[in-house]
Amino acid sequence: MFAKIEHGRLMDRVYRHQRHFYDATRKYYLLGRDPMIAGLNPPERGSILEIGCGTGRNLVLAGEAYPKTSLYGIDISNEMLATARKKIAAAGLGKRAHLAYADAADFDPEALFGRRQFDRIFISYAVSMIPQWQAVMREAVSHLTPGGALHVVDFGDLRDLPGFSKTALYTWLEWYHVTPRNDLFDVADVIAVESKTETEAQRLYRGFAWISVIRRKA
Fold this sequence. Notes:
InterPro entries: Methyltransf_25 (IPR041698), Methyltransf_Superfamily (IPR050508), SAM-dependent_MTases_sf (IPR029063). This protein is an alpha/beta fold.
């Protein structure tokens, strides 16, 4: 509980002011978010949960791309949730979208939203900021419907980029408490074995962004 509170306070401090210009600046380097959303392909009247919904930018795009789905989002930063609620309301999605404060590593969606499972769950550039990210992914998989899928997009290993680019980016990310998970695909494979699910791995932009999908069998 203490770790949860402290991480939430840290995120509030980091984003208290950044949330007002977050989307305008992050579009230049949070690559892969839109391809990830395009690849969700939920059932027509399915449910979509974003873990670490931030400003609500991705939920709005998902809502526009899949107009008959129900939308859900959780975040550990009340500052970000305040911005997300405004953005979702401005997009006219207030009746379809439901947001809640929660710790992604241990949350009860039935208590929060009145449902236990979701057709699609996605995590966009958040596992690199969550200390217990592997637990978060396991928790997410446990809340998938049969045939449901977890989609994770985050920084990759930059394998095909010049060495100085990787060093500069990683140094910059440290300033914002971001740690790229270069074992993301390996961890996804381990979780798949544990949960009897299947994985897909996609590398984008010369390794700048990775998309990991864990899919439950129907």
